Amino acid sequence: MPDASMLILYVDAPRAAATFWSGLLGREPVELSDTFAMLPLRPGLMLGLWSRHTVEPAAAAAGGGGEVVFGVADPAAVDATHADWVARGLPILQSPCDMDFGRTFVALDPDGHRLRVYTPAA
């Protein structure tokens, strides 16, 4: 089976989305245009930001239909990331809480994609 090499999110404005994601991830885009941007997530895995107005075939789904999930080291890191993202102005859908799978919270990016941060339950 082939390895996954890119996660693509459909966005309203790729340049603006790249600015947001670059600030959030601390990584610069390796490709940037009016219709598509790409940033490295880790070696071998890229984040593509494709204009929902030019994606082919056209996509009916908008943000919020799934989640981009970030695993962190421990519950304190969940809370610290939450504080950082609140300071950055990200809308918070779910404040930090303990769930069956661990400590978590959910924020939104400017295009309405859900961003979940979690650490597994001990």
CATH H-level name of the largest domain... which superfamily?
2,3-Dihydroxybiphenyl 1,2-Dioxygenase, domain 1
**Domain module count:** 2
Task: Count helical runs.
Answer: 2
Alpha-beta content class: alpha/beta
Walk across the major sheet and give the strand order. Answer: 1-4-3-2
- Say what the CATH topology of the largest domain is: 2,3-Dihydroxybiphenyl 1,2-Dioxygenase, domain 1
Strand content: 35-45%
Low-confidence stretches: none
CATH hierarchy, class of the largest domain: Alpha Beta
Map the helices and strands:
Elements: E1 6-11, H1 14-25, E2 31-32, E3 36-42, E4 45-51, E5 67-71, H2 75-87, E6 92-99, E7 102-108, E8 114-120
Parallel strand pairs: 1-4, 5-8
Antiparallel strand pairs: 2-3, 3-4, 6-7, 7-8
Domain VOC: 1-120
Protein name: Drug:proton antiporter
Organism: Siculibacillus lacustris
Structure description:
The protein is of the alpha/beta class and 122 residues long. It has two domains: 6-51, Signal recognition particle alu RNA binding heterodimer, srp9/1; 67-120, Roll (2,3-Dihydroxybiphenyl 1,2-Dioxygenase, domain 1). The chain has two helices and eight strands, in the order βαββββαβββ. The protein has helices at 14-25, 75-87; strands at 6-11, 31-32, 36-42, 45-51, 67-71, 92-99, 102-108, 114-120. The strands form two sheets. It has a four-stranded mixed β-sheet, covered by helices on one side. A hairpin with a 3-residue loop joins strand 2 (31-32) and strand 3. The chain is globular and about 40 Å long. The mean pLDDT is 95. Residues 1-120 form the VOC domain. This is Drug:proton antiporter. Pfam families: Glyoxalase. It comes from Siculibacillus lacustris.
